[in-house]
């Protein structure tokens, strides 16, 4: 079950799988009220399917199966309309009032529909040189409830966050996530002013999640406490809580005002799904180690730890936090760039049962790996500094040696020629000495300045776990 979602009245929920099935349930029975099965034939170019479902308040249910977008009324399994996009979709959203549907995926296009027509209102191609079909695959999508903004995240080679408005096909703005940072997950606040993006996992980018303010290309902060990729993120409706799910580091809770973690759920394995209650007081998360956790946002305890008989692929929580719907299935996740032993269940790895526990943050510097670009740049700077120092020493030796030659009168030339030659050589050597001396002074001052910046101040200590 690759997608699950609750209706706004909390009376029903829906799920979709990767076998072209949509299930519609009432919360009081495990027997579906209705099932819809698609019949799209496999052509070999659609890609691995990821069925998706999303509810609106007016009784609409949007869904996608094998690249076809469907619109249902929840009282019937007969679609109001359907539209094929040609390739599988990785993201599907419907506005809260049921006016718009947006979808995106493998064919590198973002589509927008008004729900009164099966013909897209517009489409926008994420162009990228060298990418699939001349574009970049969209792997995540989220829409603000007020329908004013929706945001998408792309894979290589684009590796960016794109923000759209339903009113126009051109993006409002684009923010480059990193040098090699596929944006695998996005979440947006209710007012559409903040969105959280996650992914990464490559040493070229020493961070794995970013918080953006709408309209600002530079992130508010970058989460740099681990090199392991972030698999799922969630931001609370009021943009106060930022929850990050890692493929090996468990679940991490941040106050959105800072990148510094407040608490962490350790021993939870690869976090594959996160949902927040509407009031932001509860967090539900699922893992590839077959566990579902229910936690308060203060991290005071683990309220529930349900052991399921399969890996969790999708999860949603009812608006009041009374129910959690969980979809399980085969492991279709990939783990890359991970630091440490993979016991998370990701990538088909062995699942090792671990005792999940909540760990509060300490007050020490963050743990950017020594192999990150920051450290690599420092190493390069030190190497250049050493080379210039060696050049300075060599110039001193040559200068001293030539003075000795003059003193011992070793040049076999007449006096006028000696004076001219000595003048040229001494001026040249003096200039080199001064140049290398100035360069070395510059590097010494720069390194001292950088060292002071790297020291945590008493008032701004960064946090990490004890």
From TrEMBL:
InterPro entries: Quinoprotein_ADH-like_sf, WD40/YVTN_repeat-like_dom_sf, WD40_rpt. Keywords: Membrane, Transmembrane, Transmembrane helix, WD repeat. The lineage of its organism: Bacteria, Candidatus Roizmaniibacteriota. It comes from the Bacteria. It holds the Pfam family WD40. PROSITE patterns: WD_REPEATS_2. WD repeats lie at residues 89-123. SMART domains: WD40. This is Bulb-type lectin domain-containing protein. The chain crosses the membrane at residues 383-405, 425-445.
